[in-house]
Structure formats: C-alpha cells, structure tokens
Write a structure and sequence with these properties.
Helix content is 36%, strand content 21%. It is α+β, with helices and mostly antiparallel strands. A hairpin with a 2-residue loop joins strand 3 (19-22) and strand 4 (25-28).
Length: 116
C-alpha cells in the first residue's frame, strides 16, 4: 500500500518510505528513526493513505485526542479522516470542506503542498 505523508503541508516522497507493522498502525518508515522523529514532534500528526484512512498517528496526536475526548478507538487508526471532514462540512463547517478538498487535490497530485 502506498502511503502519503504530509508534514507542515509538504508531501514526503512515498518511494522513500516503506510500510511496516507496528502496535499503533502501519507507520511508513525507512527506519525506526522516522517513527521516533514523528513521535518527537510536538505537532499532532496523523498519516493518511491515498484513500484518506488514518494509518498511523504520533504521540502528539494521541495526547491531543485523549485530552479532548476523542471517541475513536485506536486514536482514529483505520478511520476515514476524509469522511470525518465531509461530515463536519455537511454540518456547516466551511474550514472542514476546504481542508477535505485540499487533501483530495493533493492526493491526486493537483498540488504539491498546502497549509491549514
């Protein structure tokens, strides 16, 4: 499975990472160093695949989710991030609609980066 990674709006080259199984999901990693680096970030990071499914999250995401009452099991791994954004958009959240549209354009290569 090809996994796309966004870090601060920048797409990381998926050919330079390979999926590995882990206790918290399928984290793309050329080495365990990438997983450690993601967990060292203070940002909340969720990695999504080309279908918009969350395949891995970092410690910052888990802390934020726990502190804010996230009801998804496994901190959202295997959930559709795009479906959540679409649901919020249907309920009137314009920023969710914009983010979902940007992610979809990015996933099909219509832009190289975006910022939220």
């Amino acid at each position: 499975m090809r996994t796309s990674v966004i870090y601060e709006g920048q797409k990381l080259n998926p050919e330079r990472v390979s999926p590995v199984s882990g206790g918290n999901g399928r984290l793309p990693s050329g080495t365990p160093l990438l997983a450690a680096a993601l967990n060292a970030l203070t940002l909340n990071v969720a990695i999504i695949d080309v279908k918009g499914l969350v395949v891995a999250v970092n410690d910052g995401w888990r802390r934020y989710a726990d502190e804010n009452g996230m009801r998804w099991s496994r901190h959202g791994i295997d959930y559709s991030y795009l479906s959540v954004l679409d649901s919020a958009a249907r309920n009137g959240d314009d920023s969710a609609a914009q983010i979902a549209a940007s992610i979809r354009r990015w996933l099909v290569g219509q832009h190289d980066s975006f910022r939220v």
